[in-house]
Design brief:
This is DNA mismatch repair protein MutL. By secondary structure, this protein is an all-alpha fold. Helix content is 67%, strand content 0%. The protein contains 4 helices and no strands.
Length: 63
């Protein structure tokens, strides 16, 4: 639910720095998909940004 997502994000914000790497961002999207799949099917504007998939995969290989 959206409430679960908000609580999960709040917990992560309190315990982690604001500098996220690619794998953390992908983990966040996976959690978002699990908790609120409707947000990814019809995302509000600004929620998701296009990425260069090849550079993201290369970055994940080197983390």
């Amino acid at each position: 639910s959206a409430t679960q997502l908000a609580q999960w994000l709040a917990r992560r914000q309190d315990t982690e720095s604001s500098d996220w790497n690619h794998s953390q961002a992908i983990n966040l999207l996976a959690e978002l998909e699990r908790l609120c799949p409707q947000l990814l099917k019809s995302p509000p504007s600004g929620l998701l940004q296009p990425i260069e998939i090849e550079s993201a995969i290369n970055a994940l290989k080197h983390e």
